[in-house]
């Protein structure tokens, strides 16, 4: 028994770093922008390309792990992750950093589904598995929320590349611990790994997400041809992917699971709970540094409430679902994030451009509670919906939703912030070159102000900070509306029959309990309340 929990500790190292890597660049953004002379668009790509690639590959890598073994996939991925972290740390141009972040995303895609699938194999008892998944999800959430704090500590003493180098020693510990403690886990009767399906899923995910990201960025200028082409190509590839999965005897993932509104509702809840946090953390880090004037460490500490509550309530959620329905906990989590973002919107609108920290800190505290509850419960329900030999594919669905939420949070909410910021009204007295530079991004505005007379510089800085704050408030409002709407949708969808009734991934050990709305795991008699 002790060995199982030690193995869980090893697995949490992987998801901790995946979470940190998704948000650690938030505080480093001003330093990267200055050192690599990155444009506003390049900064957005540096921030979210990692999650885009991760999301595009997760389903394929989860299915690959079911076939070759999740322990093997995890150890190979961890080794590659360490190597690509070093490349990212020593990038010399913005395009190079974007490219190395792509490689990091590819390596990270091998880690996340492998960890959750190995948990499914390690913990057969539903009660233990709920707690284990709660710890796993809490670590993931804490990593995402701790990214800015870790970055702040490092940036106080080292250059921006240090935020990547911290991955290397942790990956070394993971590999050594994995070799010693982790059992191998794979599908005993795997089918072939279908390469056309892999290609279709990658093209589809990248195309659709690119179209969404660039579409929001260019809202004020109209959709470009590349956005339309990417969207159409991505949608067509996803349709072809679904049709192919329905025909294959051994699909990468059984897409018929999504016909169950409960399963689809949980996946959507997983995605949306992260969407709010990721975009919020990415731009709040810049807000605290560039508007409030905080140093990197102070800005990281300012976001600590989200990290603490996400960790605590992620663990508590695994216990809470014994007494309260999954439906109630997941809906409450989404609603809390939505309410917190609405509160943040009001604070930023009332106190422009510099809002006091207290209301923002309270909002971050509540966001962490909601994220911890929603992500843990969503992951647990998804994992319990399939037999353990298909756990890799199911884990990949959960992780894809998480990473899509991370990427879309930065892309959609970030694009709103950028679009609103670029409408900034500047004094006609400011030289045209300085005005053009200032409209690209807030860091560039502060840089342009250094070369202006004091009166013009003060006016430029005030206008830029006000525009950035206004954009952040509108993005918070959009996120709040989206999350509150999704909370209502999840509450309605989860009234439908549970995943065990779908009948597309049968597990002979799972059947309905005639006494009520519960599922029983026959070998261990553990209950899962719907």
From TrEMBL:
<feature type="domain" description="Major facilitator superfamily (MFS) profile">
    <location>
        <begin position="7"/>
        <end position="498"/>
    </location>
</feature>
<feature type="region of interest" description="Disordered">
    <location>
        <begin position="506"/>
        <end position="530"/>
    </location>
</feature>
<keyword id="KW-0472">Membrane</keyword>
<dbReference type="Pfam" id="PF07690">
    <property type="entry name" value="MFS_1"/>
</dbReference>
<keyword id="KW-0813">Transport</keyword>
<feature type="transmembrane region" description="Helical">
    <location>
        <begin position="357"/>
        <end position="383"/>
    </location>
</feature>
<keyword id="KW-0812">Transmembrane</keyword>
<feature type="transmembrane region" description="Helical">
    <location>
        <begin position="304"/>
        <end position="321"/>
    </location>
</feature>
<feature type="transmembrane region" description="Helical">
    <location>
        <begin position="224"/>
        <end position="242"/>
    </location>
</feature>
<dbReference type="InterPro" id="IPR020846">
    <property type="entry name" value="MFS_dom"/>
</dbReference>
<feature type="transmembrane region" description="Helical">
    <location>
        <begin position="131"/>
        <end position="151"/>
    </location>
</feature>
<dbReference type="GO" id="GO:0022857">
    <property type="term" value="F:transmembrane transporter activity"/>
</dbReference>
<feature type="transmembrane region" description="Helical">
    <location>
        <begin position="474"/>
        <end position="494"/>
    </location>
</feature>
<dbReference type="InterPro" id="IPR036259">
    <property type="entry name" value="MFS_trans_sf"/>
</dbReference>
<dbReference type="GO" id="GO:0005886">
    <property type="term" value="C:plasma membrane"/>
</dbReference>
<feature type="transmembrane region" description="Helical">
    <location>
        <begin position="42"/>
        <end position="61"/>
    </location>
</feature>
<feature type="transmembrane region" description="Helical">
    <location>
        <begin position="328"/>
        <end position="351"/>
    </location>
</feature>
<feature type="transmembrane region" description="Helical">
    <location>
        <begin position="157"/>
        <end position="181"/>
    </location>
</feature>
<feature type="transmembrane region" description="Helical">
    <location>
        <begin position="73"/>
        <end position="92"/>
    </location>
</feature>
<feature type="transmembrane region" description="Helical">
    <location>
        <begin position="263"/>
        <end position="284"/>
    </location>
</feature>
<feature type="transmembrane region" description="Helical">
    <location>
        <begin position="404"/>
        <end position="421"/>
    </location>
</feature>
<protein>
    <submittedName>
        <fullName>MFS transporter</fullName>
    </submittedName>
</protein>
<dbReference type="InterPro" id="IPR011701">
    <property type="entry name" value="MFS"/>
</dbReference>
<keyword id="KW-1133">Transmembrane helix</keyword>
<feature type="compositionally biased region" description="Basic and acidic residues">
    <location>
        <begin position="509"/>
        <end position="530"/>
    </location>
</feature>
<feature type="transmembrane region" description="Helical">
    <location>
        <begin position="193"/>
        <end position="212"/>
    </location>
</feature>
<keyword id="KW-1003">Cell membrane</keyword>
<feature type="transmembrane region" description="Helical">
    <location>
        <begin position="98"/>
        <end position="119"/>
    </location>
</feature>
